[in-house]
């Protein structure tokens, strides 16, 4: 039986506009240039972290060590908190974990979200779409991946990856990847807003109990 819902962070719970604006400022490039480059990388299915070498080839620093952005609750999507509270109130164990360094995980923890666990690829030592990430998240809450629903915006990491890792994926259509991946045939369950999620999870539970 499914007991646990795992939420991705970027463009699932957090609107990353502020993060990328901070990066543009840090790198001294127009925000539009950086956003366009990120969109191009997303469309080509390339690692978005290539933005550094593309917009500032004259610089080199480890991405993991640089974090110009200060995450606050103001950057949460307007439907995020209400969804987390509703899902928790419905009896699900709620986990937040994205492909982020441990430094960013600490920023997420400081938001004091109504969840049972905050983790990250940095803490788990494995990045989505590696099945080890999904297995690690499940193990951290003491369940099997098959007991988890995974909610995220990227088909490569959050849908195909989560499914391969044993979880039931729900795709969220928002953010550059979410929009670009919206019609991908790998997507089965999909929402356009987290406000739709509690009802969808109710259907998942109902389908399982009648199966
Ligand atoms: Mg994301």
Question: Which helices and strands occur, and which strands form pairs?
Answer:
Blueprint: E1 4-7, H1 17-27, H2 31-43, H3 51-55, H4 80-89, E2 93-98, H5 102-109, E3 117-120, H6 121-124, H7 131-141, E4 148-152, H8 155-164, E5 168-172, H9 175-180, E6 189-191, H10 197-210
Parallel strand pairs: 1-2, 1-4, 2-3, 4-5, 5-6
Helix pairs in contact: 1-2
Bound molecules: magnesium ion.
CATH superfamily of the largest domain: HAD superfamily/HAD-like
Q: Note the overall shape.
A: globular
Count of strand segments: 6
Briefly, what CATH class of the largest domain? Alpha Beta
Our count of domains comes out at 2
Structural class: alpha/beta
What attributes characterize this protein structure?
alpha/beta, 211 residues, Rossmann fold
Structure description:
With 211 residues, the chain is α/β, with parallel strands linked by helices. It has two domains: 4-15 and 72-210, Rossmann fold, CATH 3.40.50.1000; 17-65, no CATH class. The protein is built from ten helices and six strands, in the order E-H-H-H-H-E-H-E-H-H-E-H-E-H-E-H. It has helices spanning 17-27, 31-43, 51-55, 80-89, 102-109, 121-124, 131-141, 155-164, 175-180, 197-210; strands at 4-7, 93-98, 117-120, 148-152, 168-172, 189-191. The chain has a six-stranded parallel sheet with strand order 3-2-1-4-5-6, sandwiched between helices. Strand 5, helix 9 and strand 6 form a beta-alpha-beta unit. The longest helix has 14 residues, at 197-210. Magnesium ion is lined by residues 8, 10-12, 98, 152-154.
């Amino acid at each position: 039986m499914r007991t646990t819902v795992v939420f991705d962070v970027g463009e699932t719970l957090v609107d990353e506009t502020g993060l990328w604006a901070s990066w543009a400022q840090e790198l001294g490039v127009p925000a539009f240039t950086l956003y366009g480059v990120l969109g191009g990388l997303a469309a080509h299915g390339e690692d978005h972290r290539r933005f550094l070498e593309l917009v500032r080839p004259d610089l080199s620093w480890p991405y993991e060590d640089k974090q110009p952005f200060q995450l606050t609750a103001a950057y949460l999507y307007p439907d995020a908190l209400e969804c987390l509270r509703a899902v928790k109130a419905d009896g699900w164990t709620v986990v937040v974990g994205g492909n982020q360094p441990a430094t960013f995980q600490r920023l997420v923890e400081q938001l004091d979200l109504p969840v049972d666990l905050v983790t990250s690829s940095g803490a788990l030592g494995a990045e989505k779409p590696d099945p080890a990430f999904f297995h690690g998240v499940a193990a951290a809450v003491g369940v099997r991946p098959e007991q988890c629903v995974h909610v995220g915006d990227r088909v490569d990491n959050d849908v195909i990856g989560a499914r391969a890792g044993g979880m039931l994926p729900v795709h969220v259509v928002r953010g550059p990847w979410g929009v670009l991946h919206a019609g991908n045939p790998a997507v089965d369950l999909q929402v356009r807003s987290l406000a739709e999620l509690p009802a969808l999870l109710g259907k998942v539970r109902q389908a399982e109990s009648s199966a």
